Amino acid sequence: MSVDATAPGGLIDRHVAFVAALRGAGLPVSLAESLDATQAMAAIDLRHREQLRAAYAAAVVKRAPHRATFDRLFDLWWPPAIGDGEPAYDDTTGDEAPDDADPTDNETLRQLLREALRDVLLSDDDEAIRRLARQAVTGLGRADTQPGRQSWFTYRVLRAMSPETLLASLLESVLAGQERGGLAEKVARQMLAERIRKFEEAVEAEVRRRLAEDRGVDNISKTAVKPLIDQVDFLRASRDEIAELRRTVYPIARRLATRLTAKRRLGRSGRLDVRRTVRASLSSGGVPLTTIHKPHKPHKPELVVLCDVSGSVAAFAHFTVLLAFALREQFARVRVFAFVDTCDEVTRFFEHGDDVVDALARMSREADVVWFDGHSDYGHSFDVFNQKWSDAITPKTSLLILGDARNNYRAQSVAALRSIARHARHAYWLNPEPRQYWGSGDSAASAYGEVMPMIECRNAAQLQEFVEGILPV
User: Fold this and answer.
1) In the chain, N or C terminus with fewer CB closer than 10 Å?
2) What is the H or E stretch that residue 326 is in?
3) Is residue 264 over pLDDT 90?
4) Domain 239-263+300-469 architecture
5) pLDDT surpasses 60 at 46
6) What is the pLDDT of residue 339?
7) pLDDT, tens digit, for every residue of 283-320?
8) CA-to-CA distance for 321 and 350, rounded, in angstroms?
9) CA-CA distance, 166 to 158, in Å (whole number)?
10) H-helix or E-strand containing 419?
11) φ and ψ at 401, to 5 degrees?
């Protein structure tokens, strides 16, 4: 491996910068793991890039969801080629695909590349797909963005190659006279769609590599990776990210339930057992030298979740329903209340194990959460809850309120919230807004924060931090 080809300043400088990029993307790479990676580099053949990838991954990747971020950053910091495709590592198999096109004739080049793509998709050779993607980006992906400056674009390559339009002819070749419309065609379509997806991803990776060469790998690496799922803001989460959050939230919910229901760890638990104490005192002439206490009865936990489902926190509402789903399985009794400008109990939507999306759809249709104009009114919602369901809060109850506390300059009803919170065993407010915005504009977070602990909870990582910070009492 040529160090100059991969990093100005040498191999160690590139290693240090790569580890910093991993940390910046949210991967927890310790100093010891960084040193382990350098020791692994001494044990492998650095001319083989995949060995280097495997060595790094073994040293610094601790969780499966982090692997995609690691691979994308690895491809930027340790690229498979330089420039128009000169190999930076001696790990290719076979010869480079021939390039018979005249670079000045884009239409001829496009047709030749499409023919090559058809052959590559039929052969299912991953290395050939990457080489062809490199050629396609070199020939079709460059464009002038301003006088004297060029850049690289994925959409130009994919629009010119149109890999999805090859599907019909590819199916003809794969099925080779087999009956159409059956299982064989379904399997073939799925297989070819997967190969086309690989080619599209290879083009995207090649464009990122060329941009990194032109603009600097530091600049591109900051925008090339999506945030880790536990760093995604609940308020901005997409539908796919919400689905992925589901797998993250469930184990956190179990830990939250454990923290909220932990029994008191006291030297003497339970009430005094008079009968056993008196009986034990007979041996000392009726003097109770040792008091005996009844065993502490296991706490039967109950949970009340009160969540804002207004449009301003729609994505966060998905999270709150998701959290309520997960917590339902950990507590003896869970009651869920939703509100916009009035409050309604929505526990019934969770009782039959419906899907989260179905529960949200039913809530939007059937729940009585709009009273006046459909804009958030925390004060009125707290008043309604206090009037109708005050008996839901008992000394056995843990209370979670989830919302941004944006009250549209309406009455805050702090007294109603105080009445609700003081009867609960625990009371916490999770706020999806950054802390620096609390109390600004129509935010009532400062007033409500004086009644009960308010915790910034913008993503799963902060939810995890909140759970770990709860002390069993």
Assistant:
1) C
2) helix 314-328
3) no
4) 3-Layer(aba) Sandwich (3.40)
5) yes
6) 92
7) 777 777 677 777 766 555 688 989 898 877 766 777 77
8) 9
9) 12
10) helix 414-422
11) -110, 130
- CA gap 421, 415 in Å, rounded: 10
From residue 423, alpha-carbon distances to 257, 389, 392, 398 in Å are 19, 12, 10, 10
Average pLDDT over residues 206-213: 85
Q: Are 261 and 301 in contact (CB under 8 A)?
A: yes
Least confident of 223-227, 274-278, 372-376: 223-227
What is the Cβ-side half-sphere exposure of residue 380, based on CA atoms within 13 angstroms?
A: 20
| Whole-number Å distance between alpha carbons of 205 and 465 | 34
Under a CB-based contact definition with an 8 Å cutoff, are residues 34 and 19 in contact? yes
Length of the chain in terms of residues written: 473
Q: 3-class DSSP state for residue 449?
A: helix
How much of the chain is in helix, strand and coil states, percent to nearest 5?
55, 10, 35
Cα 391 from chain centre = 37
DSSP per residue, 75-138: HHHS-SEETTTEESSS---SPPPP--S-TT-HHHHHHHHHHHHHHHHHHT-HHHHHHHHHHHHH
CB 164 within 8 A of CB 153: no
Strands 302-308 and 142-146: unpaired
Sheet containing 302-308: order of strands: 343-345, 333-339, 302-308, 397-402, 426-431, 454-456
Least confident of 135-139, 296-300, 340-344, 458-462: 296-300
Which tokens is 326 given? 């997960």
Indicate if the pLDDT at residue 33 is higher than 70: yes
* Residue with the two structure tokens 């759970």: 467
28-53: b (≥16 Cβ within 10 Å) or e: ebeeebbebbeebbeeeebeebebbe
Residue 283 CB neighbour total at 10 angstroms: 9
* 3-state secondary structure (DSSP) of residue 37: helix
